[in-house]
């Protein structure tokens, strides 16, 4: 493994002309709307990006706008209650894992319909952090039909209530995010959490930190409270997947304990794992070029790297 060091490399797009995308909404069976953004030719392999809790689809900004991935059909979406997806004051709209599974299925099915009889109907699901609850709930409920591979980016496969899954600092901080009732306490908890997204030697620049705090603060109280209630363990689901998987995480992750990430990777010893040295919880922001190259190479050769 090579050592990664230096300043944070990910930043907002400065290209002369950003890749053009289109947005739309999908309506769920429980009358929520899921906001989706896509770019690229749908006849190409599709990559669906799922973000973690307390963020939005914009967490994938560096990857989604990268010209390195222009040969793919890229899709990113907002979890229910986050970003531009609809908000609801009903706690039951957020505390049921089956609802997240249904949301992922809604997006996958929509892409499959658009692909029609396209020669290349591959779909890869890429999930960051706590977004694993949505993707792995989908796999648990609906198997892997229609999906060609799964990419875990600093995922946690068990609830933050379980010892040694998250770092102790992030457990306390997430606890503050999901239980705080005053605006300033919520913002302070989010700031403390996002301050640990990168490794200790590679802090988020103030504008990027403010960006994450802003999208985190946009989630309704009920969505935050629901995450504190969720209890899950997806290790068996992950172990039994019938598709190739790619695991990417940093040994300097201050949110998800790297020990947990290594134990998860060990569940599928024949699949591909990249442990980035000197990198924290957000490899797509910290080392975007390496992250995109590893993702691209794995999609081309998912079982041989």
UniProtKB/TrEMBL annotation:
Highest taxon of source: Eukaryota
Segments of this protein annotated with the region Disordered: 1-22
Stored Gene3D superfamilies: alpha/beta hydrolase
Annotated AB hydrolase-1 domain residues: 47-291
Pfam families the UniProt entry points to: Abhydrolase_6
InterPro entries: AB_hydrolase_1 (IPR000073), AB_hydrolase_fold (IPR029058)
SUPFAM superfamilies hit by this protein: alpha/beta-Hydrolases (SSF53474)
Compositional bias of kind Polar residues: 1-12
Protein name as catalogued: 3634_t:CDS:1
UniProt organism field: Funneliformis mosseae
High-level lineage: Eukaryota, Fungi, Fungi incertae sedis, Mucoromycota, Glomeromycotina
């Amino acid at each position: 493994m090579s050592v990664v060091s230096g300043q944070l490399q990910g930043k907002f797009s400065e290209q002369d002309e950003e890749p053009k995308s289109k947005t739309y909404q999908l309506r769920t069976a429980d009358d929520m709307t899921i906001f989706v953004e896509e770019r690229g030719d749908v006849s190409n392999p599709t990559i669906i990006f799922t973000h973690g809790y307390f963020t939005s689809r914009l967490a994938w900004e560096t990857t989604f706008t990268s010209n390195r991935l222009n040969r793919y059909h890229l899709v990113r979406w907002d979890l229910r209650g986050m970003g531009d997806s609809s908000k609801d004051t009903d706690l039951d709209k957020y505390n049921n894992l089956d609802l997240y599974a249904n949301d992922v299925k809604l997006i996958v099915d929509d892409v499959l319909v658009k692909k029609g009889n396209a020669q290349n109907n591959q779909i890869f699901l890429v999930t960051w952090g706590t977004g694993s609850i949505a993707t792995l709930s989908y796999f648990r409920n609906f198997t892997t039909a229609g999906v060609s591979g799964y990419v875990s980016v600093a995922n946690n496969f068990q609830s933050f209530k379980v010892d040694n899954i998250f770092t102790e600092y992030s457990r306390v901080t997430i606890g503050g995010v999901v239980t705080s009732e005053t605006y300033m306490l919520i913002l302070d908890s989010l700031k403390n959490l996002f301050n640990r997204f990168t490794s200790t030697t590679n802090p988020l620049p103030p504008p990027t930190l403010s960006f994450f705090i802003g999208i985190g603060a946009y989630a309704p109280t009920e969505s935050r409270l629901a995450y504190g209630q969720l209890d899950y363990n997806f290790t068996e689901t992950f172990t039994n997947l019938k598709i190739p998987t790619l695991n990417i995480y940093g040994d300097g992750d201050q949110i998800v304990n790297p020990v947990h990430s290594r134990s998860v990777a060990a569940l599928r010893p024949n699949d591909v794992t990249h442990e980035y040295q000197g990198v924290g919880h957000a490899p797509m922001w910290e080392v975007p070029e390496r992250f995109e190259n590893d993702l691209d190479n794995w999609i081309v050769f998912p079982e041989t790297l």
